[in-house]
Design a protein that fits this description.
The complex is a heterodimer of chains A (about 350) and B (about 300).
Chain A: H1 2-16, H2 19-39, E1 48-53, H3 57-60, H4 64-73, E2 74-79, H5 82-91, E3 96-101, E4 104-109, H6 114-135, H7 151-154, H8 157-187, H9 190-195, H10 201-228, H11 244-264, H12 268-285, H13 297-303, H14 307-319, H15 329-349
Parallel strand pairs in A: 1-2, 1-3
Antiparallel strand pairs in A: 3-4
Helix pairs in contact in A: 1-10, 2-8, 2-10, 8-10, 8-11, 8-12, 8-14, 10-11, 11-12, 11-14, 11-15, 14-15
Chain B: E1 8-17, E2 20-30, E3 35-39, H1 46-54, E4 61-66, E5 82-85, H2 97-107, H3 112-121, H4 137-149, E6 155-159, H5 167-182, E7 186-190, H6 194-200, E8 203-208, E9 211-216, H7 218-225, E10 229-234, H8 240-244, E11 251-254, E12 258-263, H9 266-275, E13 283-285, H10 289-297
Classes of the chains: A alpha/beta (about 350), B alpha/beta (about 300).
The structure holds adenosine-5'-triphosphate (ATP) and magnesium ion.
């Protein structure tokens, strides 16, 4: 136990004193977040802002389920000041203002933004039809409107990018950390020296696991901290912290990839090359940088084979889509299974010494 | 020492790297508490022999036992009892000298305080806060030795511990090594300094081309060599011609700085020189381990 603690601390000190490693594991991915978070700040915000003047029973009396569906596409602000509301629409601050006068539902819109106006009209029209059907006593209408957001278009860019880039950062950090420690410790004869001491190999690997998880934790804190700044405006789900188990499982999976890369290479250069070759294409093909929804079917199927895909999609599910921890269980299982297989390969390839 | 089982038993050890037979049938015993030296030119096979004894390399054939057990494969029962300083020092990256030795010490369950004491023993307390990358070669060497000794091993392997040390550090280290030897610990070291071997070792083995050429206490080896004593005076004090006439069977050489007379009976030669008042720059040198070494291994360079 003491040897595990002291090796972990030796490894952690070595890492935090290595400016290059710090830059590439923490600052570099964070730069991506800041850059893209800034660039696509307003992209993907597909909710349309409208005003509701006074009471609008058609909207107010919607069943809960339908109201929630409407919420996905319309952001409704209630007001009683009719003149101010119309002025806002005229200036283009809001897409439309709705008002109900007796049996008449009025949509005030500006012709300036035809697309948004049409969206609002379409939605409101369907609401009116539903209301009419209900009034006519048709409780189970032949056709009903259900507004279903295509998920990632409904997510603001920062919502999508924070878990995506964070997943990529964790993957790179864990892979490079494990690969480079293994190779440089072997090359600099530290492993050889450790072999002469009574430290169990499990403590050496355990120390790397602990340090990798600590680094992943630091990455999460930095990423979430930055993305939460009002400028970027990340909004976390209520149970966002439920991503922690899948984050740890992902760290282990990539750590085991790193151990294989490190065990198979003789020089740090070779280890970095292998690690890059694995993590970089995987990041593109796993939806860490951009959504795969628009990608060809075969690519979406292929992505299922990549651990990063499972890490990122589970992190998105709980951090920003409001899903529960249970949703991540299959991915956690997959990632851990992957870890076991790769750790086995790494153990088989492991050498204390290259002489 | 009779009746005691040896601390180290090496039998017919062999190791080849491809065609090259680096260690080619080496056998010796080291008794408990003995200070044993392995001498030999570069490439003689000293490090390879040591690494097989430490359990870092698997012998092609032959056997090693330490305290009655085999060090190969990695033997957790032996590891706490042995201390190793490798020829190429190995340190954790970007740790200070103090963090370095404390980390190693903790792997053996040794306290930080004890580790710090060892830093002082090798004279590095002022360097404690420096990263190992910023230490000089000799300072790294001393740190590496301290890391090998901090857990108080019963058996110590040191591969050229004093290479790269200044004369003060070298003498200080000798004192440290004499100390641990006096505590009853067994020490095996390799060195290229024959004065070091002569001064520290109870017994030495002289190796070349992977074989042991000779072994025994340094004094015995020197005596058995039966080499002449060399008497030197400053060139010009006496002519070579005159020197040859001082006694029978003298070998005289003059390198332009000093004139050297080799003889097995130094006393009459010295008094003859004194009679002629030809003692300017006199030095008398008996045979040393170096003579034994050069006699056994020759003078040509090694690859
Ligand atoms: N890993 C290796 N692969 C191939 N040849 C090796 C290896 N290690 C040592 N050798 C060769 O084996 C021979 C013995 O080497 P060794 O290191 O044991 O010598 P040494 O006596 O310790 O020399 P030195 O005084 O220079 O330290 C040398 O010829 C060396 O070139
Ligand atoms: Mg050597």
């Amino acid at each position: 136990m003491t040897s595990f603690v002291s090796l972990s601390s030796a490894m952690a000190r070595g890492f935090f004193r290595d400016r290059t490693a710090l830059f590439f594991t923490i600052l570099f991915p964070l730069m991506f977040l800041v850059l893209f978070g800034g660039l696509f700040k307003d992209a993907g915000a597909s909710k349309t802002d409208i005003l509701q003047i006074g009471a609008v029973p058609v909207v107010d009396q919607l069943p809960a389920e339908a109201a929630a569906g409407l919420d996905q596409v319309l952001a409704v602000t209630r007001t009683s000041d009719r003149a101010a509301a119309l002025e806002e629409v005229r200036k283009g601050d809001k897409a439309a203002a709705i008002e109900q006068v007796g049996g008449e539902l009025i949509v005030h819109y500006s012709a300036a933004d035809a697309v948004k106006a049409a969206t609002v009209r379409g939605i409101v029209e369907s609401l009116v039809q539903q209301a009419n059907l209900a009034a006519a006593g048709v409780t189970t209408p032949a056709v009903t409107l259900r507004t279903q957001p295509v998920e990632d278009q409904s997510l603001k860019a920062i919502q999508y990018m924070t878990p995506g880039l964070l997943g990529w950062a964790i993957a790179t950090g864990a892979t490079f950390g494990a690969a480079l420690t293994l190779v440089t410790w072997r090359q600099k004869k530290i492993l050889r020296r450790l072999r002469l001491s009574p430290v169990p190999l499990a403590s050496v690997i355990g120390a790397r696991v602990a340090v990798s998880i600590a680094i992943a934790g630091a990455q999460c804190a930095m990423f979430i901290g930055v993305a939460l700044l009002p400028y970027f405006g990340l909004q976390l789900s209520d149970q966002w912290w439920a991503f922690i188990p899948v984050m740890i499982a992902g760290t282990l999976a990539f750590l085991s990839i790193g151990l294989v890369a490190g065990a198979a290479s003789k020089t740090p250069e070779a280890a970095s090359a292998i690690a890059n070759l694995i993590t970089l294409p995987m990041a593109f093909l796993s939806g860490a940088f951009f959504p795969l929804d628009g990608a060809p079917k075969w690519l979406q199927q292929l992505s299922e084979f990549f651990p990063l895909k499972h890490l990122v999609s589970s992190m998105q599910d709980v951090m920003v889509r409001g899903e529960s921890f249970a949703v991540t269980l299959p991915d956690i299982g997959l990632l851990l299974g992957f870890t076991v297989v790769l750790a086995g390969i790494a153990a088989f390839l492991f050498r204390w010494d290259d002489a | 020492m009779h009746g005691m089982s040896p601390t180290i038993k090496v039998e017919e050890l062999r190791k080849a790297y491809g065609e090259l037979r680096a260690v080619d049938g080496v056998s010796f015993d080291v008794q408990p508490g003995e200070f044993f030296g392995i001498l030999g030119p570069n490439g003689a096979g000293k490090t390879t022999t040591l690494e097989m004894m430490e359990g870092l390399r698997k012998p092609d054939s032959g056997s090693v036992t330490l305290f009655g057990e085999s060090p190969w494969p990695r033997n957790p029962r032996l590891l706490p009892r042995i201390g190793v300083q490798l020829q190429a020092s190995a340190f954790f990256e970007r740790l200070t000298a103090r963090e370095q030795i404390r980390t190693f010490a903790s792997l053996y369950g040794v306290s930080a305080r004890k580790a710090d004491e060892w830093l002082a023993v090798v004279g590095l307390e002022d360097m404690a806060g420096k990263r190992n990358e910023d230490l000089s070669g000799g300072q790294q060497q001393r740190l590496s030795i301290a890391c090998a000794l901090a857990h108080g091993p019963d058996l110590v392997f040191l591969d050229e511990p004093t290479s790269g040390l200044d004369p003060q550090a070298r003498r200080n280290l000798w004192d440290v090594l004499r100390d641990i030897s006096a505590q009853g610990r067994t020490v095996v070291l390799t060195t290229h300094y024959l004065d070091e071997a002569e001064s520290l070792c109870d017994r030495v083995a002289i190796m070349d081309h992977g074989r042991i050429l000779e072994s025994g206490p340094p004094a015995t080896l020197v005596r058995d060599l039966d080499a002449p004593t060399r008497i030197s005076v400053e060139t010009g004090t006496i002519t070579a011609e005159a020197a040859r006439g001082l006694a029978d069977g003298l070998e005289v050489s003059d390198d332009g700085v000093s004139l050297t007379i080799a003889t097995r009976t130094p006393a009459p030669v010295l008094s003859a020189l004194a009679e002629r008042d030809a003692l300017r720059g006199l030095s008398v040198r008996g045979a040393t381990l170096e003579d034994v070494f050069l006699h056994l291994t020759g003078r040509e360079y090694r690859a």
